[in-house]
Amino acid sequence: MRVNGELKDLATTLTETDDVEPVTIDSEDGLAILRHSTAHVLAQAVQRINPQANLGIGPPVTDGFYYDFGVDTPFTPEDIKAISKEMQRIIREGQRFVRRVVTEDEARAAMADEPFKLELIDLAGGPGSGANAAEGASAEIGAGDLTIYENTTRDGEVAWKDLCRGPHLPNTRMIGNGWDLTRIAAAYWRGSEKNPQLQRIYGTAWPSKDELRAYQHRLEEAAKRDHRRLGKELDLFSFPEEIGSGLSVWHPRGGVVRGEMEQHARKRHIEGGYTYVYTPHISKEDLFLTSNHLITYKDGMFPPIVMDEERDDEGNITKQGQDYYLKPMNCPMHILIYKERARSYRDLPLRLAENGTVYRNELSGALHGLTRVRGFTQDDSHLFVTPDQLEEEVGKVLEFILSMLRDFGLTDFELELSMKDDEKSKWIGTDEFWESSTDALRRVAVASGLKLTEVPGEAAFYGPKIDLKTRDAIGRTWQLSTVQVDPNLPDRFDLEFMDRDGQKKRPIMIHRALFGSIERFFAILLEHYAGDFPVWLSPVQVVGIPVAEDFADYLGDVIRTLRESGVRAELDTSDDRMQKKIRNHTTGKVPLMLIAGEKDRDAGTVSFRFRDGTQQNGVPISDAVARIRAAIDSHALVHTVEDLA
């Protein structure tokens, strides 16, 4: 339950004045409690089998949980089977989760044999506590009292204990059978390579067996849709070792899809009043010192490149070199474009757009296909507005974003408004600015009609923002676009505009990335469609397959007609049998196949074969070309004959 806004165990003693809300097991909070409780059972099972195993941390995570252990030898699949059986026994025993508030000395005595827990106790309450102690450590030593959770038997004996913030389920039996252990990994203690390497066991837990099976089905479907696998199978992109980790190259077919994405977005942006600009990949350090990136974001930037150094004939330095950096963000350069000449209120809003490649020094372990890379292209836009234009412009931006994403077939959206909290030391700017800008974003979000979640304390230190999230075809949530209000960079760069009253004033800047990054958005679309793109995005839109060689010339003329109409069409003249050609192009995710034999040649028709395996015969050539062109222009997703109506 929640008591006065805080999560508490059901055993908590209540007063008449307490504000109490129930927490159901299928809610976000309830699932986290279920999963954290299951992580405790996992740790207890490991120590029953191997009493020498040392406990790390065991937090809930998205769709599951993990627990880290210090053990002499890595876990094996056979170990996992034994641990699972022991977990089943503990769950059936119905042990109670009992919370006990302890002093630091009592906590150290209880955890005397657990070196990692003792380290967390030392950090409790200090600057390295909670989430700062290690990813997931806030589940152990969050704000407030130090607490131990004891698993007690029906006889009241303590069967096992752990340093933990809680809360937990009343007893282990409530975990039920909707859980599973999923994989083994290695992890450095507190995320640092300088610390010991621990063994991590991941698991998942759901309120019922049916929900577990549904989740496992989603995982299987996600594996089939994995963009890394599809990228290789469909010859779209790769990461050559010779170039380096996290740096992609796009193959011709992937380049076609990317080109369509970029060209469509460019057309829509120009129609929406944006102007495209181009900026370098590299800059002197002074720019990023002024923008503060070299102070707040230096760890995410690549090391400097020293240039412009000059030496005399004897090798003595006559001019000191200058540090240059690969840009991690485009905004400072867009600001310089604004600042190049005097601006008037008549120039605003000024909307600058760029497909700008940026570079982030990501850890190798964090890289993941196209969704987490070291070099990527942001479809970046920066808008400069007067304060009284802010709400209207944010409304236009959000409307534009939603319209654009719908063009790509995404339709399920929700919004998150990141706001400041009450701790003033974390924020800059006046209360009036924060209140007015947050209210403006809130009104825009509410007017959209989408589900809105407000998140206090999650805003950047200089202004509120709206994040847009979408669900894909298998229900996964992806964060895509961000609309960020920023008065800070205009202030740091001393930007001005001449207002109607003849006074120089400061513009407000809006950061807006629609796709986030083109690479990541491409990966999301690839998985959303499982490679079966709408016709307009398909690398090859139509393949002609003659029934026999005698009909290749006839079908070749049809393919040429399609090409003249702007269709990406190919003729398969290979020696393979017709059925093998159909299988090959079905596997290659070609949306439309045209087949022609003697009857088609005599009648001036073609036969369509669709992704679902059905055919439509005897379609006049002119009708076929018109229907294909219409499917492309309407961004249709074609699987059946009805989709090509």
TrEMBL record:
Please report the organism this UniProt entry assigns to the protein.
Answer: Microbacterium tenebrionis
Describe the reaction catalysed, as an equation. Answer: tRNA(Thr) + L-threonine + ATP = L-threonyl-tRNA(Thr) + AMP + diphosphate + H(+)
Q: Where does Zn(2+) bind?
A: 331, 382, 511
Q: Which family does it belong to?
A: Belongs to the class-II aminoacyl-tRNA synthetase family.
Among InterPro entries, the record links this protein to: aa-tRNA-synt_IIb (IPR002314), aa-tRNA-synth_II (IPR006195), aa-tRNA-synth_II/BPL/LPL (IPR045864), Anticodon-bd (IPR004154), Anticodon-bd_dom_sf (IPR036621), TGS (IPR004095), Thr-tRNA-ligase_IIa (IPR002320), Thr/Ala-tRNA-synth_IIc_edit (IPR018163)
Upper taxonomic lineage: Bacteria, Bacillati, Actinomycetota, Actinomycetes, Micrococcales
Which ranges form a coiled coil?
A: none
- Domain TGS, chain residue ranges per copy: 1-24
> Any idea of its EC number?
6.1.1.3
Q: Which GO terms describe its cellular component?
A: cytoplasm
Q: Which gene encodes it?
A: thrS
Instruction: Give the multimer and partner information.
Output: Homodimer.
Q: Enumerate the cofactors the protein uses.
A: Zn(2+)
Explain how, and how many, cofactor molecules are bound. Answer: Binds 1 zinc ion per subunit.
Localization, per the record, is: Cytoplasm
The UniProt entry's GO biological process terms, in alphabetical order, are: threonyl-tRNA aminoacylation
Q: Which SMART domains match?
A: tRNA_SAD
> What's the protein name?
Threonine--tRNA ligase
The keyword tRNA-binding is annotated on this UniProt entry: yes
For this UniProt record, the keywords arranged alphabetically read as follows: Aminoacyl-tRNA synthetase, ATP-binding, Cytoplasm, Ligase, Metal-binding, Nucleotide-binding, Protein biosynthesis, RNA-binding, tRNA-binding, Zinc
* Gene Ontology molecular function terms on file: ATP binding; metal ion binding; threonine-tRNA ligase activity; tRNA binding
